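Record pair follows.
FIRST:
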Amino acid sequence: MGKEEFLREARKMGLGEDLISEIIKEVEEDIAFGLSVDWAMYLIPPVIND
C-alpha cells in the first residue's frame, strides 16, 4: 500500500486530517531513516471506550 491508497482509506475510515498529517509525517521520517514501512498498519480503527 502506498501513500495515496493510505490517504483514500484513512479518509473513508473517517480519520481526521490532523491525525492523517501526523501519521504521514511519522511514516515519512521512518522512510527517510531507511526503515521499511507498511502504511496499512496505520489503518487499524482506534479503540473507543464508552
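SECOND:
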Amino acid sequence: MRKAIPIIITNTNVLVYSESEEQFKPFTLSGLPVTPNIPFYHAYAQRIAESQHYFKEFFKKLYPNKSSRNVFAIIVPDDTSPLESIFINEFFLNSGTCKAVAQMQMGQTLSKDQPQYISISKSNRNVVLLYIKNNEIKASRLYDCGNYDPQRIIEDTKRIHIDVEYENTPVFVNNFNMNMDEFFEAGEIISPTQFMEKIAVIDVEKL
C-alpha cells in the first residue's frame, strides 16, 4: 500500500509533513497580497512560476532524497470550491515535486473509526457543516462568517441529512484553526494536535 505525503492547506499557509522530523513544517511566501475572505493561495496564481519554484526548493529541504514520483495527500478546508480544488491539485502537480495527488476535505479526516458523523469547521469565509458517511460527503451547509448564529448551526446538525434524524450521529468540532469556542457544546472537540496526528500517516487508498 503506497504511503502518501500529507499536506494541509490551512487558512494562512501550507503545511507539509516531514518524515525525518515527524512534524508538519509551514511553507509561506512573503510579499503576496492579502485579501479578506479570499484564500491566501489565490495570490499564488498571480506569481505561479515563482510560487512553484519556492515550493519545490522548500520541499527538497524536507525530502532531499525523494524524487518527483511522490504522491501527495492534500487536505483542504471544508469550503474549498471545485475550481479551487483544481487549482490546488495543478499547483502541486506542476511544481516538479510529485507525480500524483489525492485530495480530501478536512472534515473527511476527523475519524477513522466512525462510519458516519457530522463535522463542524470554520474557515476565513464560512462556518461549514458536513455529513460524512463511509468517507464520502453526503450533505453540506455553508454559513457566512460575517453573519451566523452558532445555536442555529448546532441545531442544524440534527437535520443536515435525513439519516441523522433517525440515528444517533456523532458530531466532531474541528478546532484546527483554534476558532471554534462557540461550538464546543456541539460535540467532540478535535484539537490541532489531534488533527495532525490523524493524518500524519495516510495512504492513497483511503482517499
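COMMENT: The longest strand covers residues 136-144.
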